[in-house]
Please model this.
Amino acid sequence: MTEEEIKQQLQAEKPDFDSIPDFLKDDHWYEVDVDGDFLDFQEPYRPPRYILSHDGVKFANIGDLHVVSGKAGHGKTNLMSQLMAAILSGQFGNIRYEMSEAIPKPIVLYIDTEQGKDDTIAIKNRVCELAGLDYRQPQEQFKILRLRDTEEAADRWRKILKAVWLIKPNVVFLDGMLDIVNDYNDQKECQPIVRKCMMLATHYDVSLWMVLHENPMADKLVGTLGSITQRKVTEVFTVRKHKRSEETKFKPNRPDIYFTVTELKARGRDVNDWDFEVIPGAAGWGMPREIIDVPELPTYKTKHTIEEVKEWITDGQSRLDWPATHSDFFSQILVPNGIEDKEEQRELLNMAVNRGFIQKQTSSEMKKGQVTPRLKLNPNEILPFGEQKEDCEF
Model:
């Protein structure tokens, strides 16, 4: 039976209360209209519309809920500042805004439920500085709602709904979620508000980020509200603060205090951890900065340079049948240039492979019965002997 036939049948069967089925009759399910709840099989699939990425791994689908968690004072607001700056400017550190073509000028609504006005102003200034915006002037793409002075949780939620309706943001950051309920352990109160957050994200097609503290004594979202929220959201990111004076195992090349971002839950591909520090700002508010490790360049036990190796390979390539064995490479490329020490030969071969002059065969390129992959030239780096990159100018 098709969806249309089901709909016609349900419309034709007007409730006859004398013939209502007895099964769970007191739940009054028979008279409920479900016409609009059946999936339309003709509606096409819409791939995720991720709004952010870190190191190329995308996250935060529009229309879904996302959580930033952590202990009190562990850098949750600083993480959100980085996310907001990336959305407003296109990139911050390794965080990138991914919707520049579909939404070239995203509108961000930040909702602060607990901080004093000066602290909120500091957040505004920090985000604007990180994004390259003038924090002294109103910004069309960045709006802030303060609800600390609104006493009742129900009134705060109503103001959130009104602000989203007025601003029409693309991304909402709710800092924090505990302030839209009276009792975070009351399931009858928490279940509906999480459901309403989901409805808000769907109805307005926004990416909704929510700050939710962790239990002080355990690494889990606080209370019944946290348990329900964790089951419903698509991502949970947590922030951990590290102090050199308090940890026996401390990462090398890190400042005395730094923060680690970890994705605890993901619907898609997991985002790798990343670290950031907070440096003093020129005007008094701290400025988060991602710590980007630069890999150390390999060192080789040889006095010869990579330029020499490239010249030797280019000049001597015709003496080998490619793909070549390691021993042929040593005898035909390195020995003619005075390299007879076995350890130095291996070092120079590693140098050539790491630099990309030489490539090793893949398993699919190896012949039947071949155990060790042979070496082949990288034509993008080593030109055939005698060939030049471009025509000479006359």
